[in-house]
Design goal:
This protein is of the alpha/beta class. The protein has 2 domains: 90 residues, Enolase-like, N-terminal domain (Enolase-like, domain 1, 2-Layer Sandwich); 227 residues, TIM Barrel (Alpha-Beta Barrel), CATH 3.20.20. The chain contains 14 helices and 13 strands. The strands form 2 sheets. Strands 4, 5, 6, 7, 8, 9, 10, 11, 12 and 13 form a 10-stranded mixed beta sheet that branches. Helix 8 runs parallel beside helix 9 and helix 10 packs parallel to helix 11. It is globular. It starts with a helix and ends with a helix.
Amino acid sequence: MTPHIAAKRARLMAGWAVQSAAAARSKSAATITDVTAQALREPAGKREYVIVTLRTDAGVSGVGEASVAPGAAAAVVVNVLSQKAALVGRDATAVETLPASPVRGAFNMACLDIVGKLAKAPVYEVLGGPTRHKARAATTLTSPDAVSSLRAAGFRAAFVPLPPPPYRNQGQGWVKGVRRRLDELRKAAGNDFDFVLDCNGALTPGDAQMLAKELETFHLLWLEEPCSLVNLEAAAKVSGEAVTPLGFGRHVTQNHQFQDLLRLDAIDILRPPLRLGFTQIRKAAALAETYYTAIAPFHRGGPVATAAALHLAASLPNFFLQEVPFPAAEQDRRMRAELVSQPVESVRDGYFALPSGPGLGITLNPDALQKYRAA
């Protein structure tokens, strides 16, 4: 190394040291001072979700939501609270540096809620949006006769659960039966109503290929998780032999797995689960955008996560559709509306309006939190 280069490097290192020292001395705009978690349960359907709250020394709190498998709410609360020592004292605005954990997505939502409130702007503006001014909505069809109630609620798209086939390699009779069921649903719903057929990974690649081919003229929005992702080449073959769009990703947790699907051209709609949080889903969406692939985050939790999903939708250029639960029981729908002061799950002509307040744009109702607390 020449003396000139050595001197130059020394000056650079000294400059970086000064910057690092200054950064270390500067006080965070909002330091996390407390972490709380509360499990909620819908009274009729028994769906559970955990609300996470981060409090800061700036007088601003952020909320997030952790998804819960059936009967696992207490374990998720314990998991959240076990992270308290790692979070207290951290800069709430340093979203990218959150410690890894199964509930990191909930902390991610809560931190961005804090960032938005500090900036006095919706989260999607902090993230560079909005890329749109409304978000297309869909929900799950809980029974064949529920189409009219979904239309009345404003929905114009629904996920149709495919009953698990009784055995492998069904044949044409079963495929034609699925087609007849979908035709009946469209007749009841109207031609302006779209469907996603949710297979939940239950089909063999052969059955998935036959079904995708049969439904080409039905024009599904997409065929959801038609087969397992154990064999990615088989999934790519299903995609390559039919024009019916395929959606995969709701069981994927790492972005390199999304990239494997994209490289094989096995996917038309990327379905990252909302529990991954804003940061990881935005990275997955950026990957998908380079492959001209749309994104529709998977979400079947509570209204706090719905609010987060709408901010995410408004920040993604390649966003397509956001599903949200629409419980069959009126008391469950009433609970979801009571939890937040702003109506985040109202649908009009097939679309959600974007939240407009700072942060996630919602305020939790303390009375409702107490009323619906899970035991």
